[in-house]
C-alpha cells in the first residue's frame, strides 16, 4: 500500500525507534500535521539543539536526508537512535545503555555499534563546559516560563475563527512555524538535559549501594505541568461528589451528560464552573495531542467528563495534592539515605545532580506542554477550515481536511470541490494504516509494510510465564485486577483497586493514574511521560513490558513491582 508519507531513513544513522514517540502521536500521523510545519520544525529545532549543546557541529548533517533526526517510516513517526547514541558517547558520564533505558530500548536486542569517529575528545570537552554551565550549573526554568507565557498570550488572543477568510485561516496555520521551531529546540535541549541528569542520579545511587532508590529520588519533584490537568479534574470530581444531583446525572451515563448538568442550574453550578476552568486551562489535552486531527477536551466535552466520571468514584484516590505531598516526603527520605552513603566529592556532586535532575524533569514536561498548547491553535484553525468546507458540501467529513498536504492548501481553498474524491481516498488509506503495527525498532531498510503485524490478525498471546519482566518506571509494589485499557475514555470497568494496563499512555491518561492502583505499559522509559507522572502521584508503574496487553489476561489478579520492573500473574 503506497502512502504519501513514506520517507527513506538516514543511511548513515540507520537505527530508529518508536520509543516515547507514541506518547504524543496516534498511529499514524496525518498529511497536514506532518507537512504544515511539524516535520521541518521538529527536525530543524532538534538540529539546532544538538549544535547548541556542543555535542557536534552542523556539518554532521551534511549529505543527510531531509528528515534524519525525526524519521517518518511507513507513515509512522520514529526517533533516530543512532544520533542519540553518538550524543551519549560524547557526553561525559553518559552511555548508550543509559540512553536506551531512557527510551525503553532493549540494548541487548539492539546493541550499540561503535565507530571510530563517535569518540571526539574535543567535542566532549565542549560538552563538559555545557554541562557545567547550562545543565548542572544553571537550574532555573525562566526561559521556559517565558515561552509558556508567550504561547498562553497567543492562545488568549485567538480571534473568532469563524470570521476569518479561508486564506486568513491558511496564513494563520503557517504563521506558528517560527515559534514552533523554537519550542521544539527547547524540547530537544531539555530532553537531553533530563536524560543526562537522570542517568547521573542512577549512577550515583548505584555507587552508594542504593540503586533501588533512584526512582524515588526523582519522584514528587513538584510543579510538573502534566499533573495540572489531573489536579483540575480532581477538583471537578470533588465538586460532583458534593452535589447529589450532579452525582445522579453522572450515574445516567455520558450520553447527554453535559446537557443534563446544564439543566440542573445551581445544583451543578460548582461542577460546571470547575469544568469550564479545567477546559480553559487544558483544552488542548487529548490522546495523541501532537497530532492535529486528534480530539481534545475543547473539541469533545465527553473526554474530560469521562475522566471526571472515574475520579468521582473515589475521594481518597482522586486527591492529587495529597498524593503528591506523600511522594515528596518519600523523595526526601530516599535522597537523604543515598547521600548518607556517599562521601566527599560524590556527596557534593549528588546534591547538584539531584537538583538538576528534578529541574529538568519539570522542564521536559513544560516544553512538551507548551508545544502542545501552540499546536492546538493550529488544530483549531484547521478544524474551522474543515467545518466550513463540510458545511458547503466539499468534504464528506470535517476531519478530512487533515488529509491535505500543506503545499496543497492554496489550491484547495481556490477550488475545494476538485479535491473531494482525492481526500476521501486518502482518508481510507490513512485509516487502513491503523491496522498495521509498526516495528518498535527499525535498523537500516524499512521492512515492507505488508510484512508488519496486523492488529486484526494477531493471535492470542500465550501467558506461559507467571512473572513478566519490563522496566522500572515508578517504585512501589501493589496488587490488583488487571484492566486492559485502549483509550482513556473507555474505562467503565476500571475501578480504584485495579491495575491499568495499556499499550502506551500520553498526557490524556494521567487523571486515571489517580484512580488506578498501578500502571503497566508496553513501551516507555525512565523519562517517559507516564512514569514521570506516576512518580509524582506515588503510583507504581512498570514500562517496556512487551505485549503486556496480550500476555496479561484482563481481570487477572496481578502484582506490580515498580522498582523491579516486574508483573506477577497471581490468578487468572
Summarize this, please?
The protein is an alpha+beta fold.
Notes on the structure:
- With 572 residues, the protein is of the alpha+beta class.
- It has 19 helices and 14 strands.
- An eight-stranded mixed beta sheet has the order 7-14-13-9-10-11-12-8. It has a four-stranded antiparallel beta sheet with strand order 2-3-1-5.
- Strand 2 and strand 3 form a beta hairpin.
- Helix 1 crosses helix 7, helix 5 packs parallel to helix 15 and helix 9 runs antiparallel to helix 12.
- It is globular, with a radius of gyration of 23 Å.
- 53% of the residues are buried.
- The model has no long low-confidence stretch (mean pLDDT 91).
Structural class: alpha+beta
Distance between the termini: 40 Å
Q: What's the arrangement of strands in the largest beta sheet?
A: 7-14-13-9-10-11-12-8
What is the helical fraction, as a range of percent?
Answer: 40-55%
Poorly predicted residue ranges = none
Inertia-based shape = globular
